[in-house]
Amino acid sequence: MFAAERRQLILEMVRANGAVSLRELARVVQTSEVTVRRDVRALEAEGLLDRRHGGAVLPGGFTRESGFPQKSHLATAEKTAIADLAAGLVEEGEAIVVGAGTTTQELARRLARVPGLTVVTNSLLVAQALAHANRVEVVMTGGTLRGSNYALVGSGAEQSLQGLRVSKAFLSGSGLTAERGLSTSNMLSASVDRALVQAAAEVVVLADHTKLGTDTMFQTVPTDLITRLVTDEPPAHDDRAATELQALADQGVQIAVAGASGSPGGDQVPAGRRAPLPGPRRGHVPGTSALRSAAGLGDPTAAERGRVADLRRR
Q1: Which of 13, 29, 48, 152 counts the most CB atoms within 10 A of its CB?
Q2: Which residues, including other chains, have CB under 8 Å from residue 59's CB and lie 6 or more apart?
Q3: Model confidence over 17-27: pLDDT tens digits?
């Protein structure tokens, strides 16, 4: 395929989906990621698209938000791996909150197998994934439906979360940086996500490597409130994603990498990276490479069990 044909196909993919990873572009045009990166730079120079860490977006991507149909086809393998790893953080009988997003939807599909679970969510997609789960109670927030991502937002959603207390919040977003933390392109979504964070003792962010280093308009979770990041292993050439992981680790965020060499379920950054295993955070004492013991996420404390019981009695 000639360069002009390849770049036209790349441009059409980005226009159709809003954002596409370099890995996916290389697969579709049947060439290397190095070649695709060169094509993306050329298209950016012409003002036809913008580069983002690990991918390409339409111009104006800082404020642009793709809808669910577009997001659902992006980084699908990475989201699956992240969801598999994050599901191991959830214990039988816990009460948790799960925010809106395609990655959290993948997580919800796996949580359907956890008995005695209570899931509070503002996402219709998360609720749908758990609707027929045996022994899983789903609590929906109120609010106004936002059709682009099938989420309930607004004052009704935020007010329904007041006074709520759960063990963990699982959130996704549009971008993640060590400087600002998790962010999104929509003000209403950001406001509800902040309310979800306030309800949880621990915050777990689910973000694939294409979101690392990307900053969008509205901050949802500052870095110092993120307990753990569950992500996938960045490509070997993606130094910026590795640098961002290093910076997040330096600020105490515990990093869990899906598909990391040597320990698929372990707490570590990708093999060959320089980023160290993050140190203690909020009283947690890292243990072995097992996820639950590494972050102190094993058996809930007596106080936590009491909070779960209070939630169910409501």
Answers
A1: 152
A2: 47, 48, 49, 50
A3: 667 788 888 88
